[in-house]
Design brief:
Blueprint (H helix, E strand, L loop, with lengths): L1 H17 L6 E9 L6 H14 L7 E7 L2 E4 L4 E4 L15 E4 L3 E8 L3
Helix pairs in contact: 1-2
Length: 114
C-alpha cells in the first residue's frame, strides 16, 4: 500500500516546514488528482493508522480533495475535462497536455490556535 508511504511523506513535509508548530496542527487538506493513483479511502486508512501509532498526532484530521482531469487542446487553445480517460477534445483533437489531475499536494494546514 503506497498510501502509507505517502502519509509518512506528508508528515515529514509538515515536520520540516512547521517544526515546532507541527503538534498544533488541527487539520490538513490533501489534494489528489484522479491520475495520481491515490485512493481517498486508502489514504484516509493509512492516515488513521499513522496517527494511531504516533499518538501525539491523534487529534489531527485529514481531508482529501479529489481533482478531476483537465487537459489542454492545442487546436482550440482551451482546457477541456477528460472523461473515462479519453483525452480527446470536443473538436475531435487528441491531447496529452495535462493541466490538472496528476497532482498530489498538501493544500491547506489549519492550526488549533489560529
Amino acid at each position: 500500500m503506497h498510501e502509507l508511504s505517502i502519509v509518512k511523506d506528508i508528515f515529514d513535509t509538515l515536520t520540516s516546514h512547521y517544526e515546532s508548530r507541527v503538534d498544533d496542527i488541527q487539520k490538513i487538506q490533501v489534494t489528489a488528482g484522479l491520475l495520481s493513483n491515490v485512493q481517498p479511502v486508502l489514504i484516509q486508512n493509512a492516515f488513521d493508522a499513522f496517527i494511531t501509532e504516533n499518538t501525539h498526532y491523534r487529534n489531527m484530521e485529514m481531508e482529501v480533495v479529489v481533482n478531476d482531469i483537465i487537459a489542454y487542446c492545442e487546436h482550440c487553445q482551451k482546457n477541456f475535462p477528460v472523461h473515462f480517460h479519453r483525452f480527446v477534445c470536443d473538436c475531435g483533437q487528441p491531447s496529452s497536455t495535462i493541466v490538472q489531475g496528476d497532482e498530489l499536494y498538501i493544500s491547506k494546514v489549519i492550526f488549533k490556535h489560529d
